Known about the structure:
By secondary structure, this protein is an alpha/beta fold. Helix content is 42%, strand content 16%. It is built from eleven helices and twelve strands. It has helices at 8-15, 19-27, 34-46, 54-59, 79-94, 121-129, 153-166, 182-197, 212-224, 237-249, 283-298; strands spanning 65-69, 98-102, 113-116, 136-139, 148-151, 172-176, 203-206, 231-234, 259-264, 277-280, 305-308, 311-313. A six-stranded parallel β-sheet has the order 2-1-3-4-5-11, with helices on one face. Strand 6, helix 8 (182-197) and strand 7 (203-206) form a beta-alpha-beta unit. Helix 1 (8-15) crosses helix 2 and helix 5 (79-94) packs across helix 11. The model has no long low-confidence stretch (mean pLDDT 89).
Amino acid sequence: xxxTHVTIADIARETGFSIMTVSRAFNNQDKLNPKTLAKILKxxxxxxxxxxxxARSLALKRTNIIHxxxxxxxxxxxxxxxxxxxxxxxxxxxxxxxxxxxxxxPHKVTCDGxxxxxxxxxxxxxxxxxxxxxxxxxxxxxxxxxxxxxVDNYAGQKLAVKHLIEKGCKNIAxxxxxxxxxxxxxxxxxYKDEMAEFQKEAVALECSDNNVSxxxxxxxxxxxxxxxxxxxxxxxxAIAIGCTYALKEKGLExxxxxxxxxxxxxxxxxxxxxxxxxxxxxxYEVGVCLADTLLAMLDGQQPTRSKISPKLVINESA
Length: 318
């Protein structure tokens, strides 16, 4: 009997229970005797009765809901969020799951699993100590968490430095994002190590925030110090855009006088003049991997850790 023809009444007739009792099996199973519930769900499976996977979800004691946590200070409209969440949602949907965006770190929540993204190092440390009863996957990395997916920030920043050195830059400065963010520390270390490999002197300055104005202020301060710089590697595209404003204000031409490379590739790199060379985060691939990692854990597989390589996108600024 095909699922398009099977109804609750059919299951009631086959099992001998009332239609109301069968209905409770799919809507309010706590009201039923466990043996009664088991018989109804078994017959539903035999008859191929799984509308919206309700019966299957109840049988497996699942909600088919995943919570995706982002901190309150991170806008849900940021490309970092929208691009990653779109991939997560698409992948989860293919497996019959839906998701809810959450602004509070989950404890005892009604869901099957949790994906955490956009948090700083302090929040990662806190997450590693929480007694969350559901599988958790972090966008980032932490030594005390069994499951995470991250962009290889260290390798990506080395790509940027190597590109400028190969372009002939002699004095490359680095504008860092705030170092309370895990990714910022990794990118800074990538810059330092690549400079050391080429026996170049490192000049690194930390921005007060990850935005255009912070990049502008730090770059302007460095330029006023009369330190000769012919290349800037920036921890983010926002900082890099601010840097380009400071360079133009100083009367320098990009890339004739000085080259600039950013990191993120969320789309802003195409809105600058000249277009910004950047290290692009593969956010769609990350989102798919986050979802797949969690789905595998829900199927009983061991948690995994993954790092995904970014790519250098060469435009006009370097």
